[in-house]
Specification:
This protein is mainly beta. It contains two helices and six strands, in the order βαββββαβ. The protein has a single domain, classed as Acetoacetate decarboxylase-like (Beta Barrel), CATH 2.40.400.
């Protein structure tokens, strides 16, 4: 397969709200060799809501799946090996059952379908 990127698109109408929290609340979600990226000694947890538009899957437009809303709950991390920063998703929601199915089945993402 030429294009190995699963899903690509534009984020529109973005809303993000971040909260500080006790790091112990997030530690149970950490993958191997990943640690929390703390801010002033606190964990940072965010809710991100947006419209995903001009969506393509493996470079292909799928009918009825080129624009949809998504909400995700995430926290910020870094690699214990090289310090690379990233995020861990606790839950993700979209109003497209196919998106949730593929994300769960093939990418082990905590994705759920929510009716709009």
């Amino acid at each position: 397969m030429k294009n190995k990127i699963f899903m690509k698109g534009e984020w529109k109408n973005l809303i993000i709200k971040s909260f500080s929290c006790n790091p112990e609340l997030l530690e149970k979600y950490l993958p191997h060799n990943i640690e929390l990226d703390l801010f002033q000694g606190k964990g940072v947890f965010s809710m991100v809501a947006f419209t995903f538009s001009k969506v393509r899957f493996f470079g292909i437009k799928i009918p009825l799946h080129q624009s949809f809303g998504e909400i995700n709950f995430r926290f910020y991390t870094k690699s214990k090996i090289d310090g690379t920063k990233g995020v861990v998703f606790i839950k993700e929601y979209a109003n497209k059952p196919l998106i949730a199915f593929i994300a769960n089945k093939f990418y082990n993402e905590p994705f759920f379908c929510a009716k709009s």
